[in-house]
Design a protein that fits this description.
about 30% helix, alpha/beta, Rossmann fold, 7-stranded mixed sheet, about 10% strand, single chain, about 270 residues
């Protein structure tokens, strides 16, 4: 839920990827050396692109970090919150078209994992170059969203209590009442979309799928991550790291090294 640090796009030739449209959807861009793969990142419910700022010092060589800023949060806080997941994915497909012209991967955490999966499906339907991999983190599979606790139905106090309990609201931010209010609205909107979006059965991706999670995640327990194995035509590795629902911000170097291993030119993979 951290605030974004602001756009820091690498220098390069002017073109569509440097347009205002793309800067609005991708903020905090950073590359480690000459980019070989672009990592488009989608944060958790209510999260802004700045949630991935802690990854910046740990980027492996050849990886370009491209955090996606969804409407209604961060640098786009004044815009309306999404109220339809299909429409949001359609807007992403159009806005990020130039981002897909370099080898890329999609990473999504929690609600962002659902967004990344649905975007990959839409990419396949439109014949766009597929991602090297879809990387889903701490997310419930689309056919199993009914298992989610309906926390979006709680009042603001109850939703805030849930965020505190899962580590999704740092105590240092609680004094910023305006910020807290806007975050709660974004969290509620995203959770509502996630619960409402349900597939009757798994629809596999044509590209590789990798799943990550925390060993002590109270939101999406490790056992539920196994449901994603039905969402690809090849084997789906499930890799666990020490930590809770926000494990990915505790030891970024380890996770990013694994991501680089499965998205690099050799796509060598890894196992634990």
């Amino acid at each position: 839920m951290d605030e974004p640090t602001g756009p820091t796009e690498p220098a390069g030739p002017a073109g569509p990827a440097g347009s205002n449209r793309h800067r609005r959807w991708v903020t905090g861009r950073l590359a480690a050396g000459e980019p070989r793969v672009r990592l488009l990142c989608f944060p958790q419910a209510g999260g802004a692109a700045g949630a991935f700022s802690v990854w910046r010092p740990h980027l492996p060589a050849g990886v370009e970090l491209a955090p996606v800023e969804l409407p209604g949060r961060g640098t786009r806080r004044a815009e309306p919150l999404p109220d339809d997941l299909g429409a949001l994915v359609g807007a992403l497909l159009e806005a990020l078209d130039d981002e897909f012209k370099r080898p890329y991967a999609l990473f999504g955490h929690s609600f962002g994992g659902l967004v990344a999966y649905e975007l990959a499906l839409r990419i396949g339907q439109y014949g766009i170059a597929p991602p090297r991999a879809v990387l889903v983190s701490g997310a419930r599979a689309p056919h199993a969203t009914a298992r989610a606790e309906p926390v979006h139905e709680r009042d603001d106090a109850g939703l805030l209590e849930w965020l505190r309990g899962t580590g999704g609201m740092p105590a240092s931010l609680l004094r910023q009442t305006g910020y807290v209010r806007s975050v709660l609205a974004a969290v509620r909107a995203d959770l509502t979309l996630g619960v409402a979006h349900r597939r009757a059965e798994p629809l596999p991706l044509a590209c590789p799928l990798h799943v990550f999670g925390g060993t002590a995640d109270p939101v999406v327990p490790p056992a539920e991550l196994q449901d994603w194995r039905a969402y690809a035509t090849s084997a789906v590795p499930v890799t666990l790291y020490p930590g809770d629902h926000f494990y990915l911000y505790a030891d970024p170097a380890r996770l990013l090294a694994d991501i680089a291993a499965v998205t690099g030119p050799g796509r060598s993979g890894f196992s634990r």
